[in-house]
Automatic annotation (TrEMBL):
Name of this protein: Uncharacterized protein
Lineage of producing organism: Bacteria, Pseudomonadati, Spirochaetota, Spirochaetia, Brachyspirales
Signal peptide: 1-19
Protein source organism: Brachyspira hyodysenteriae ATCC 27164
PROSITE patterns: PROKAR_LIPOPROTEIN
Keyword vocabulary terms for this entry: Signal
């Protein structure tokens, strides 16, 4: 019984003592909107643009989460 009371007490204390720090995020990059593709050259250019946008999002995420 003492063990159960101790666990309940420990749970209540741990829940009350947790403090979260909220940090506002910077605005994320713009959403990638693919352009109209007519030729193979357009496909390659859109592919390059999409890779640049993915890289931009990855860099933004890494800065927000302090990774790398």
């Amino acid at each position: 019984m003492k063990y159960l009371i101790f666990l309940c007490y420990f749970f209540v204390i741990s829940c009350c003592s947790t403090k979260y720090i909220t940090v506002p995020l910077t605005t994320p990059p713009d959403i990638y909107n693919p352009g109209i593709v007519y030729t193979e050259k357009d496909i390659i250019n859109e592919y390059k643009r999409s890779l640049m946008k993915i890289s931009e999002w990855q860099n933004w995420y890494n800065v927000q989460t302090n990774i790398n």
